[in-house]
Design a protein that fits this description.
Oligomer: single chain
Number of helices: 5
Largest sheet: 6 strands, antiparallel
CATH architecture of the largest domain: 3-Layer(aba) Sandwich
Number of strands: 12
Strand order of the largest sheet: 4-3-6-1-2-5
């Protein structure tokens, strides 16, 4: 796959650890909502990030969680800041939105994995799909809901979209779902056989979620997640 050079339009810090980056490809690119790209850092050094927007504009949006301790991501941010451009390989992964499916959809994201489901949701809205959509977004603490307002707005504007925030370590006043995000899904649906399920998050979380969902009836061919190519 030939790398495409992108100029850096903006780098915005959304909270203590999360950056929102907008890239402008220097040539036409195509991808499907839910695919990812690889940032080319050097020979044999490619770092993968979900594309956080549906293919509706000429911009590529990334949400990258990066701290000084996380050199994998932080070095990418520093390269973008210093060079003003970056080479990427675009349109990777098989966990893209199945646009022709009429099945209800579960979108389950852990942490910054919300970037992946954001792209799926944008495409669902753009295509005016009528499938019921259940978004479960799990974070460790409330402050990590960096796009909560947008998720709430989707649910308020579209009757088929339902947003379920989940906090692993909630404060005393939290009234919503708590604990592990995949457990919130299991608690909500007795039988998952009728759903298309999209999973993004840490590899170990994705593995456990898939196993538990299959035990509750989910069909393996209707569970999508790029983590499964690596585990």
């Amino acid at each position: 796959m030939q790398p495409v050079t992108c100029t850096i339009k903006s780098i915005e810090k959304l909270n203590d650890f999360l950056y929102r980056i907008l890239l402008i490809p220097t040539q036409a690119v195509s991808y499907k909502a839910g695919q990812y790209l690889s940032v080319v850092m050097g020979e044999g050094d490619k770092r993968h990030f979900s594309i956080a927007n549906a293919p509706l504009t000429n911009e590529i949006e990334l949400h990258i969680g990066a701290t000084p301790e996380n050199s994998y991501a932080m070095q990418v941010i520093e390269k973008m800041q210093s060079d003003g451009k970056v080479d990427v390989e675009i349109a990777k992964g098989d966990a893209y939105l199945r646009e022709d499916s009429k099945r209800p959809i579960i979108l389950m994201a852990g942490g910054t994995g919300f970037s992946y489901v954001k792209a799926l949701l944008e495409q669902i809205v753009h295509l005016q799909l009528e499938n019921p959509v259940y978004l479960y977004w799990g974070v460790k603490e409330y402050s990590h809901f960096y796009f909560e307002n947008e998720a709430v707005a989707w649910a308020e504007k579209h009757t088929n979209i339902h947003f379920h925030p989940v906090i692993e370590l909630p404060e005393a006043q939290w009234q919503g779902h708590q604990g592990y995000v995949h457990q919130a899904v299991l608690n909500e649906f007795d039988n998952l056989s009728g759903f298309d399920i999209y999973i993004v998050g840490r590899f170990e979380m994705a593995k456990i979620a898939r196993e538990d969902f299959v035990k509750q009836g989910a069909l393996p061919d209707h569970i999508f997640g790029d983590a499964f190519a690596f585990i």
